[in-house]
Amino acid sequence: MKMKLNYTPSIRRLPSYLHIIRAFQRTGEPYISGTWIANELNLEPIQVRKDLAITGIVGKPKKGYPVDQLIAAIEHYLGWDVEQKAIIVGAGNLGSALTGYQEFRNHGLKIVAAFDSDPEKVGKTIHGIEVFPMDRLDSIVHERGIHLAILTVPSPYAQSSCDAIVAAGIQAIWNFTNVKLKVPDHVIVQREDLSSGYALLSVMVRTLSAPGG
To answer: DSSP secondary structure string, 75-128?
Structure first.
């Protein structure tokens, strides 16, 4: 049976909280209130308190949350206080961009290798990351103890690449393709649908641009 998290919406909000709290930390104030965080993000204070409660931290009456401890609690809950090794499968435009995304490194995600079936890409480096042929996937995953793969191949190659990733022993796949992958029950897949975000933004822009909008 696939693992399900009961706190998925809360987990998705925690990075936004972390960004706000880190900015607040620069003020030097030792405590931050849930109401202040809620106002910054246009949320209800009770929602913020419920979300933060899953990290195990408890605020102090009339003071709020100790800033440094709150940051540490969120980072620990998200697993961002430990290094997570990952690979990129698909060294095209998106894969190349993700290898250079600094925020991954700030959150403990270290991309250690990239893979591609294109001979023109193999052997090159992207942001200091070497691109290997797909037939090296299994050996490198085992040698370097990797458990997470970021999939950015063109859609026609998504499932076959996924099968190779699973065969290599990868336990979690961050799927940036528009294909719903078929995986064994023990493998976790998080799909990142970029087109959905753009679709929402596009409709909102069109609505604002319409007469009377």
So the answer is: HHHHTTTS-EEEEEE--SHHHHHHHT-HHHHHTTEEEEEEEES-TTTTT-EETT
Query: Within 10 A of 31 (CB to CB), how many other CB atoms are there?
Result: 16
Please give the Cα distance from 150 to 111 (Å, whole number).
Answer: 9
Angle between helix axes 67-78 and 8-25 (nearest 10 degrees) is 140
DSSP helix/strand/coil, 131? strand
What's the pLDDT score for residue 5?
Answer: 56
Which residues lie below 8 Å from residue 171, measured CB to CB, with a gap of 6+? 147, 148, 186, 187, 188
Low-confidence ranges of the chain (pLDDT < 70): 1-7, 212-213
From the centroid of its chain, how far is CA 26? 25
Question: Using CA atoms in the order 8, 109, 169, 184, what is the torsion angle rounded to 10 degrees?
Answer: 20
Query: What pLDDT, on a 0 to 100 scale, did the predictor assign at position 213?
Result: 56
pLDDT at 207: 84
In angstroms, how far is CA 156 from the centroid of its own chain?
A: 24
Which pLDDT does position 212 carry in this prediction? 63
> pTM of the prediction?
0.83
E strands in the chain = 31-32, 65-66, 84-89, 109-116, 125-126, 129-133, 148-151, 172-175, 188-191
d(CA 47, CA 39): 11
